[in-house]
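Postdoc handover notes: sequence design on the structure in folder B. Input tokens:
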């Protein structure tokens, strides 16, 4: 940039950063203050995992002290591994990923700041404010200053090499941890661990005898999936009618109870609400308190707005009396094998080892037949409609989805580029005269416009994408919710990298280059480009502040969510079932939507680590705050939700390689536009090394990332002989939480246990100090408790479609003083099960039930598939 240009405008980087920091900090301070005050009194929302009756005792988290600040120490003492024991492998690995990313950013900060800040600050350029700390302050016109890029290249070698090692190290850690997790008795004996789903099965093999002949005595149960379209519709209709009946019964009881209370109070309006004598003589107890014209009704036409008006209770009873026999007949036909088979087969094996052998072997001689195969599939996560898709449709659908998502990425770049250009307004107004009106805008306002506004706008834009991606995954034929989540993780990460990083960076730089080209011709383009790319980091400083301070605070406090929860529970949950569902349903983290956001932040941090090292400070702070926020939520608030059995972790770690590649390419490009030939050659050498490293590590580790090797059976028997199988592990605050090892105290020493190593040996030898033998101690190997083993009848029907196993729901209504609930039960129980136990109506017409125990008649212990 010329001196005249520099005089025309002052860089807004410092003003933008301060404005964003102050605004975001103020919002975060208010939200955290509210959280600290209401946390004690809002235990259901902020600590349900400590007491809620629907959560088994062994899956609960110890309660924290109730003070405003005195709970910090107790919170920190609970190890991350507690999530591994009480929730899922995904939850634990998600926390570990955030810690690893924080470590990478912090180590990068320690490497780059002492070396690159002095080099950049004395680089001879004319940058100002925060820009003097980036590579853009190197005066590329001076050959002596160009040689300073050797310092950047050297730091890049060291830091990028560290990132590569961390990726490899964590993949090794994951391999051993997943093996230890899957081989614990409580996981290995689950039916999902012993069942393989075969898709695209040819018609000739949709036969139990042929499948059994293929796997011989290793197969225990075989389910040939059939078409259940008609049955699904019947079951869906029955459920809808049953819930309509339940809501109408509750409404009737509330009307009668309100009139009874008014009658007891001597209200003059009571006589108007009572039924006429002819209705009382009918013997209907409800008629005493609710006139016939006040009973719940609905219309049979479109959306209940038009058509014949009917009594809801009487109509629902009659409808259910015809639906249930039809459903039972259709279910019997399915179980008799009379349904049309679809190309999917579930095979349960006697052991997990046999199931692993089946999923790893070629099961059919024709291509694309009986594949892909999946193991660890819970019946609850199967997308049954996807099983109907034949192999050729899957290919076509995938290409359609690929084309659609590609077009979406291209067109989504338009609003993203516009948002990115806002962050470069201060630079653009110096180059485009028609933006001169912005010179009159106060600096504080400009700081808000260029700092906070684009960061918030970009976050909102990107939040709309995962919903579309999930729909695309289902259309493409992904057979399970976990596969949909992994598909979403992969595509949304690509979307994040392209839109949040590449489009944002390139668009800001392009606008600057076009301005220079229009004003000074092509001679200054390379100089402008070398300065513009580092300056794009100013946007990410604001973006990381917004993400790390404001959004991390909202993740922890969830103030808006708390208000919505209280309002919906109080005013919209009008039946006991609705209250129970709202009270006991915990929010779950969508891994495919959440994880790519932080993977992309890590990628951006790695890419800009050498070009603009200042950014690493804010990414370190942001990642650390996100870790603390999600740590609290996973331990105390969230449920496990969709379980990928840890497969989100290696995918996220390997996605960090994108950051390394982009960083190396950017460094090569920066050296090229700076005309620094030898630094460019040195950087190209490391880029080639990275490619070979990537190929070698991937070929060595990939098979172990997704499969269980046979040798583990021998390893397990050896460890059993040394008496380690039943070691009780009680981990303290630090055990298993370092980046180098996992383990616990009170563990018996064994002959196979490795000697204790120091920090360096543990860090550089994960295959020894984080081996299968060591990490298996991290996971409790408890015996089966009630509900953890399936009854034979339940197991035999586990992989039938849900509509085949569906039974009429138990209706739950409140008990009233007048005894009307008993009367309604007597009239309804011949059609559908119904009860009034565990719930009452008080004189204020409020529904009262046990929110602490939270195990009403409709509660069922969740089977451990």
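Designed sequence:
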């Amino acid at each position: 940039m010329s001196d005249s240009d520099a005089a025309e405008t002052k860089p807004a980087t410092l003003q933008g950063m301060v404005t964003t920091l102050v605004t975001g900090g103020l919002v975060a301070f208010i939200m955290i203050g509210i959280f600290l005050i209401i946390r004690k009194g809002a235990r259901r929302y902020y600590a349900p995992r400590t007491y809620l009756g629907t959560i088994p005792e062994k899956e609960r988290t110890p309660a924290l002290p109730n003070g405003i600040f005195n709970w910090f120490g107790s919170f920190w003492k609970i190890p991350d591994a507690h999530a591994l024991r009480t929730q899922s492998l995904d939850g634990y690995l998600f926390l570990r990923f955030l810690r690893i990313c924080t470590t990478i950013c912090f180590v990068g900060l320690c490497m780059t700041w002492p070396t690159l800040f002095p080099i950049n600050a004395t680089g001879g350029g004319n940058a100002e404010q925060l820009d003097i700390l980036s590579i853009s302050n190197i005066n590329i016109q001076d050959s002596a200053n160009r040689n300073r890029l050797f310092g950047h290249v050297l730091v890049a070698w060291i830091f990028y090499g560290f990132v590569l090692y961390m990726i490899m190290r964590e993949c090794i850690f994951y391999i051993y941890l997943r093996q230890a997790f899957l081989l614990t008795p409580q996981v290995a004996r689950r039916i999902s661990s012993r069942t393989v789903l075969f898709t695209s099965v040819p018609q000739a093999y949709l036969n139990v005898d042929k499948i059994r002949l293929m796997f011989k005595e290793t197969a225990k149960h075989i389910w040939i999936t059939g078409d259940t379209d008609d049955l699904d519709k019947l079951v869906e209709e029955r459920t809808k009618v049953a819930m309509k009946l339940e809501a109408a019964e509750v409404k009737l009881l509330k009307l009668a109870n309100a009139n009874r209370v008014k009658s007891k109070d001597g209200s003059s309006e009571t006589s108007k609400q009572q039924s006429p004598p002819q209705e009382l003589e009918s013997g209907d107890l409800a008629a005493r308190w609710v006139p016939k014209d006040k009973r719940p009704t609905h219309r049979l036409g479109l959306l209940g707005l038009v058509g014949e008006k009917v009594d809801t209770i009487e109509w629902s009873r009659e409808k259910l009396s015809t639906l249930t026999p039809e459903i039972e007949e259709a279910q019997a036909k399915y179980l008799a094998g009379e349904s049309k088979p679809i190309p999917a087969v579930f095979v349960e094996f006697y052991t997990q080892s046999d199931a692993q052998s089946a999923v790893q072997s070629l099961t059919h001689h024709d291509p694309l037949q009986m594949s892909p195969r999946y193991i660890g599939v819970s019946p609850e996560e199967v997308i049954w409609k996807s099983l109907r898709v034949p192999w050729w449709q899957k290919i076509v659908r995938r290409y359609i989805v690929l084309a659609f998502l590609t077009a979406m990425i291209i067109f989504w770049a338009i609003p993203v580029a516009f948002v990115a250009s806002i962050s470069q307004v201060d630079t653009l107004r110096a180059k485009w005269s028609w933006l001169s009106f912005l010179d009159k805008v106060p600096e504080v306002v400009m700081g808000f416009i260029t700092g906070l506004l684009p960061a918030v706008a970009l976050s909102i834009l990107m939040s709309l994408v995962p919903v579309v991606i999930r729909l695309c995954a289902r259309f493409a034929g992904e057979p399970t919710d976990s596969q949909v989540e992994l598909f979403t993780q992969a595509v949304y990460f690509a979307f994040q990298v392209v839109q949040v990083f590449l489009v944002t960076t390139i668009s800001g730089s392009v606008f600057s280059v076009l301005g220079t080209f229009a004003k000074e011709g092509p001679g200054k383009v390379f100089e402008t480009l070398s300065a513009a790319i580092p300056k794009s980091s100013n946007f990410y400083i604001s973006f990381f502040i917004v993400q790390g301070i404001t959004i991390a605070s909202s993740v922890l406090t969830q103030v808006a969510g708390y208000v919505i929860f209280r309002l919906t529970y109080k005013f919209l949950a009008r039946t006991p079932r609705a209250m129970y569902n709202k009270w006991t349903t915990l929010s779950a983290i969508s891994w495919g939507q959440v994880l790519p956001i932080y993977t992309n932040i890590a990628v951006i941090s790695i890419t800009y680590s050498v070009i603009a090292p200042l950014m690493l400070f804010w990414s370190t702070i942001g990642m650390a705050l996100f870790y603390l926020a999600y740590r609290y939520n996973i331990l105390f608030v969230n449920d496990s939700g969709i379980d990928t059995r840890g497969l989100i972790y290696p995918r996220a770690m390997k996605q960090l390689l994108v950051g390394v590649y982009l960083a190396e390419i950017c460094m090569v490009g920066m050296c090229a536009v700076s005309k620094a030939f030898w630094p460019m050659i040195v950087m190209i050498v490391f880029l080639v090394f990275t490619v070979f490293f990537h190929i070698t590590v991937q070929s060595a580790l990939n098979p172990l990332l997704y499969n269980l090797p046979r040798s583990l059976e021998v390893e397990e028997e050896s460890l059993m002989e040394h008496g380690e199988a039943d070691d009780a592990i009680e981990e303290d605050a630090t055990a298993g939480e370092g980046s180098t090892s996992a383990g616990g105290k009170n563990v018996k020493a064994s002959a196979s246990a490795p000697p204790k190593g120091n920090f360096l040996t543990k860090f550089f030898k994960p295959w020894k100090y984080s081996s299968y033998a060591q990490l298996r101690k991290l996971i409790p190997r408890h015996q089966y408790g009630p509900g953890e083993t399936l009854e034979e009848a339940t197991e035999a029907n586990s992989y039938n479609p849900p509509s085949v196993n569906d039974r009429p729901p138990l209706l739950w209504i409140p008990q009233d003083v007048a005894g009307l609930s008993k009367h309604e039960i007597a009239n309804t129980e011949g059609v559908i099960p119904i009860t009034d136990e565990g719930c009452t109506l008080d004189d204020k017409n409020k529904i009262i039930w046990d929110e602490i125990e939270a195990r009403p008649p409709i509660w069922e212990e969740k089977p451990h598939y």
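Context for whoever picks this up: The two ends are 64 Å apart (CA to CA). Don't rerun without checking with the PI first.
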